[in-house]
Amino acid sequence: MRILITNDDGINAPGLVALAEIAAEIAGPDGEVWTVAPAFEQSGVGHCISYVHPTLIAELGPRRFAAEGSPADCVLAAIGDVMRDNPPDLVLSGVNRGNNSGENVMYSGTIGGAMEAALQGLPAIALSQYLGQHTATLADPFEAARKHAPRLIRQLLDHGDWTSDADFRLFYNINFPACDAASVKGVRVAPQGRRQGVRFESEPYHAPNGRRFLWILGGSQTSPATPGSDVDANMRNYISLTPMRPDLTCHASLDALRIMEEG
């Protein structure tokens, strides 16, 4: 199996090292793991693509490339250039430093990389490691992901919905809880949730020279969330598995809006 890995924390992120080990285990001794990751951190860029300027790409080693762009750019770079003659069989994005459950999904570059792969017709999985007080005391904060990801990915490859049609291909979002590997209680298939009262905010800051800047601040990651959701599962030390697709349509509202159709 030929696997492409990328992330949004940057080419030197420890989570990418963990993902490379996970991917190597999945690919097997006869497989290949290719890395095309951002040269610099791209957290919070979502599904951004750099179509208004060129993207510099550099080969850092065998099957290892850094691109000055977003995770989605990296997937495009792999498909259109680095791996053009032999495209990947699977795309893995992560392992993100911090969770991408709940409302974080909408901002995540990790999700953006997996989503771009799905739009390109490739099987894709985003992986993120919830961080907290417990993981801060671990020698390896990515321990839960390293231990449990290979088995879960194999199960997805065997039993996941990988069909591709004229609409949107599914991809998968996996979040590992903020605990050591032995404390993980299991896996929960869960919808994307929403933390109560959590919003991103801007905070003004005046530099010593008088110039005015803004910091973008996130909310609490431990706030209560929708029961049965990905956040809820993670807070109870379960791995969350969420099927997703690049379709923001609220299908439940379509019929009610038909009354507005004309002609």
Automatic annotation (TrEMBL):
Protein source organism: Paracoccus aestuariivivens
Protein's job: Nucleotidase that shows phosphatase activity on nucleoside 5'-monophosphates.
Family membership noted in the UniProt record: Belongs to the SurE nucleotidase family.
Cellular location(s): Cytoplasm
Binding site for a divalent metal cation: D8, D9, S43, N96
GO molecular function: 3'-nucleotidase activity; 5'-nucleotidase activity; exopolyphosphatase activity; metal ion binding; nucleotide binding
GO CC terms, sorted: cytoplasm
Cofactor: a divalent metal cation
SUPFAM superfamilies: SurE-like
Name the UniProt record assigns to this protein: 5'-nucleotidase SurE
Cofactor binding remark: Binds 1 divalent metal cation per subunit.
Catalytic activity: a ribonucleoside 5'-phosphate + H2O = a ribonucleoside + phosphate
